[in-house]
Amino acid sequence: MSFFLKKTGFQEYLPLILIETFFSLAYLLYRFGPWMYPYRKDNVTLIFFMGCCFLFCLGYCIATKKYNRKCIDIDLTDPDKLIHVLVGIGLITFIPYCYVNTGSFYPKIWSSFNDLGLAYQTALNRLPLGTIFKINSLIVDIIKFPLVIILYICWNKINNPLKYAGFFLSLWFYATDLCIGRNRSVMFVSICFLIMYSAKVVRGAVKNIKEVSLRTTIITLVIILVGPLYFAATMNSRGSAAVEYANFLAQSGKNSSEDKFIKDIVKKKWGYVRPKVVRYKKNINEVDKLEFNIAIKPGKVSSEVVRHKKNIIKLDKFNEFDMVIKPGEVSSEIVERYEKYAPQSKKVHPFYANDLTYAFVNVGDPFFAKLPSRVQYLYAQVSNYLSHGFQGLTIGLRTNFNWTFGFGQALVLQNKFEKMTGIDIYSRSYISKVNAAGYPISYQWCTAFLQFASDFTFIGAVLFMGFLGFLFASLWIETIYKEDILATVLLVYLSFSLLLLTSWWQPSLSPADFLVFYGGIFTWLMKKSFWYNRELTVGISIQNGLKL
């Protein structure tokens, strides 16, 4: 392995190989994995995704070939000053952050681990305690991941008091996230350590020195392993809660459609109508019109109201809507397969059949049947997490384009833009149209490509993937050759976003991620522009024989 790491080409192209492999795995799980998605054999989706992967690879290769590894822009950022600021903010906010998320002034890890499913539901049901606490949580979400990254990569360059204060705060925030049963934050830290450790190992190979110690390796491996183990524990805990609730419903004689995990669905043979839509029915003059756009306020009826026949979405075809093209048809083969296998899947575990999208696990598959029961469940859940967004993408590829004014991938800014301009961005986006076509965005993912396409069209989304590849390569090279702190922080955020590209565009999900990622990109580009102009000045001065 050390032989390959010393090869310049392998050092620079290692992230590309890993990311492209991961993209391929996600699509293979969608097309050939355990979940029987109705549109998984759609060739339009395959061609589009192959185009995205190719442009990403092309952009990465262009950046790698054109990058000047010998330019003078050495990172002069003082890690002590950065950590001083982050630690100062963290010491003010760490206790309120824990109280907002857990209801306690300190992380109660042991009691939370007894029932992570309950901890997760409690965290979801916890109401915000006021503007001050919201601001506090926003600030912590902004600083906690950069704090971990800078501590990891600059541990030996930071003075001891700041180092240990930062370590305590990082451990506190991590323990708080472990207590609330949320997978995203814990998985982010695991991916964080994986990326940073890889960068350190490659940087050591570049300099021909040992960058990582045995202690660092052990700590890194432990943190990396916590991510998937925690994911398995939380999903098993949530699944156990689902089984207990299903048994309770069976004993009480209630219909399983009342299950709290699918409570927004009222089943009608092979279709469903949302209770929220039914509640709005009284605000609509004609019986056959139902409001299906959640962005419309109750009591309002607009031209975007969806018209149904018999108020139902049928399995054999999607209805035509005012704002979308008919997505396609589900064949009779799918119907027969659902009738045969879905009940079997449901008996094995409630989560093995998805009433929202008609997808189900083929429990009769020879490979799936040979797996141990616990591994089956984990395999099904991981496959679902990585692949089901392609189903939403497939429907989105068959809808019309309406420009979202650059806010399609900025979910956190859409409401602000609407308040200022009166333009409803959400209803123009592909996400809204896919939701109107019967694919429930509130419960399912649809890939980041739909967000990109809302701004750039699907052809533009393919080209945008080329830009992301170019950016990814530039950040990686600056990290391994120049030890740029800001580039390393952005590299970790972008890597996490790329690994979850088949779900959502991660920087758009919260104000904190949006500010760190896009603010960091802007700052990094400004710094690059400064050093580029300085390099030109130095070159001209040297050519003219002038002293600097």
Automatic annotation (TrEMBL):
Could you tell me the keywords of this UniProt record? Membrane, Transmembrane, Transmembrane helix
According to the lineage, what is the superkingdom? Bacteria
Q: Which residues cross the membrane?
A: 12-32, 44-62, 82-102, 135-155, 162-180, 186-202, 214-233, 456-477, 484-502
Name it: Oligosaccharide repeat unit polymerase
Q: Does the keyword DNA repair apply?
A: no
Presence of keyword Cytoplasm = no
